[in-house]
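Attaching the record inline, Q. Sequence:
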Amino acid sequence: MDNFQIETAQNISINQNVASVGDRILAFVVDVFIIGVYIVISSLALAGTGLDTAGQWVYYLVMGLPTLLYYLLWESLYNGQTPGKAALQIRVVKLDGSRPAFAEYLIRWLLRFIDISLSSGAIAVVTILLNGKGQRLGDLAAKTTVISEKPRTNLSRSLGVDLPEGYQPKYPQVSLLKDADVQNIKNLYQTAKINRNHQLILSLSDKLAELLETQPQEAPMEFVQQVISDYNYYTQRL
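Structure, as predicted:
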């Protein structure tokens, strides 16, 4: 699996996994299966309505429009994922790691007809393999890519947190976070400590407090460390 660096708003570099071609193909297969099931079910449902010739446009509207807009609607409304992408734990993001705007999803969707539909996916596969950042033509135009959210290493080893015996966690809601989230938090935290970037640690603390819906009593640096340690504590007991 390839990886590349993304730049955060604080100009911090983080290595990011690129979704493999295999995962993207499998996600495509899952989505095509879902579309196929929808077509079969809707065809059977409409067949029983006895639509006359004048009403055939309803048939094409119900069958064609959701199929045509499947990828655009799912990715724009479901934070860069279709059901197939969610099943394979991959997601569309901008090159800086942030969420794309609707316009970027639209560009990807429009060029999908060249990348995938007209060439049976050949152009997309070749472009992804040669690009190095997991980008097909639609991604290149939209400045997006598809990343994998699967953890690359064992969590306890990647976090590198040694918990003392009898450790008492304070924030059980950290279990709602994802491995990738905590790994990024750890990367930002360590970089901020090395560079003595107090503003970044403060921003990180505020964002964590918002995500965990809590009001930390600790100083920002201690709070971030507590979150990382608590997450390590709970995941070790799964």
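The chain has two domains: 3-148, 155-235. The two ends are 27 Å apart (CA to CA).

More tomorrow.
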